[in-house]
Amino acid sequence: MIRRNRFEIVGQSLVFAAGVIIALVFVSIMIMEFENSKKLSDAVNENMLELAASIKDNGVMMYDGVRVTGADVLNFGKRYFYSSDREGPFVLRIIPAEGYEIDVDTKSGMEAVVRASGLREGPCYVDPTEEYLGSVIQNENGMITHVTFTYV
Predict the structure, then answer these.
(1) pTM
(2) How many domains does the chain have?
């Protein structure tokens, strides 16, 4: 059996303790960096969502005060209501030459308008060759609530 002196055991214990402390410091640093990267990732995702919403709003705002054809009105509705089965972010109001209002806020509602316009008949018929004037209505928070296209 090998006998060790006390100083050798104390030295090895100090080296072991220093190794444990260094390992704990590295683990603590890794945990802090993970938390920081998580916060950074959340901030980037939030900014990207805001940017996407802003781009989408700009795509809608460009119709404010602009004359377009009925075909453009139908394409606008398809773009914003066919992208999902959920309700739209706003109400699309179309006022054709006859003066009645067609309100669309779902994909199925837009499908009915497109179908009637293709057949050129029905209560929600939009003539693709007529001109319409677009207007965008926002609430006090700046969210778009209505997009209206009125026959000119």
Answers:
(1) 0.61
(2) 2
